[in-house]
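Action item from last meeting closed. Structure (214 res):
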């Protein structure tokens, strides 16, 4: 589990194909901030742009680690196929502060940036989410964008999906990779965990009568 509070901005410095076919994934080498790996071990979970990945090797001296990303994960996410800046978050510990909201690190869909510009001291980010995610988006609700926990300020349903408007404060711009976004860029989206379960529980077909104990 994660909180959507970015703990470091890293960079994918190498992408190595794990095979020659489309069914093979890729191995990513990530460079991270100094001392970022001091409390990291093999098998630990680190979210890359909101996608939960497992550390397969790490080198604290070089501040680098590797992850293996399956073809399925590559197909369902954005920003993990080429070198470039990336948001990092280590997995939540039981005694950590929950500064954002509960995040699973499972990407629900890919959104497209439709607008990104400075407004006063902040920045407005508009993202067109897939139509399948529209019912999970709500005014003042939570959304995870490339691993960052953000608040939806406005939503507008459209034929091709749902456009949401998000306000980014200067701290977010300076301490995440979101400041590098441009119109047309693709981002990883994860809906609010509570909304996911509420939608499931409201489906009549999942309501069942408990079986009596014998």
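Sequence:
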């Amino acid at each position: 589990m994660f909180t959507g509070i970015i703990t470091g901005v890293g960079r994918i410095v190498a992408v190595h194909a794990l095979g020659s076919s489309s069914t093979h994934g890729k191995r990513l080498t990530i460079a991270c901030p100094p001392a970022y790996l001091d409390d990291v071990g093999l098998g630990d979970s680190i979210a890359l742009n909101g996608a939960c990945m497992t550390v397969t090797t790490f080198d604290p001296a070089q501040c680098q680690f590797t992850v293996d990303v399956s073809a399925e994960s590559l197909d369902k996410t954005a920003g993990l196929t080429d070198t470039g800046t990336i948001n990092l978050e280590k997995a939540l510990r039981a005694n950590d502060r929950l500064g954002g909201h509960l995040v699973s690190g499972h990407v629900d869909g890919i959104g497209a940036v439709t607008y990104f510009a400075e407004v006063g001291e902040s920045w407005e980010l508009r993202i067109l989410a897939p139509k399948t995610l529209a019912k999970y988006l709500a005014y003042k609700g939570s959304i995870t964008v490339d691993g960052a926990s953000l608040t939806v300020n406005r939503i507008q349903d459209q034929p091709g999906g749902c456009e949401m408007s998000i306000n980014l404060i200067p701290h977010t711009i300076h301490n995440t990779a979101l400041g590098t976004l441009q119109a047309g860029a693709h981002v990883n989206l994860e809906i609010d965990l509570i909304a996911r379960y509420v939608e499931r529980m409201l489906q009549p077909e999942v309501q069942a009568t408990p079986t009596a104990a014998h």
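Note appended to the action item: The longest strand covers residues 109-119.
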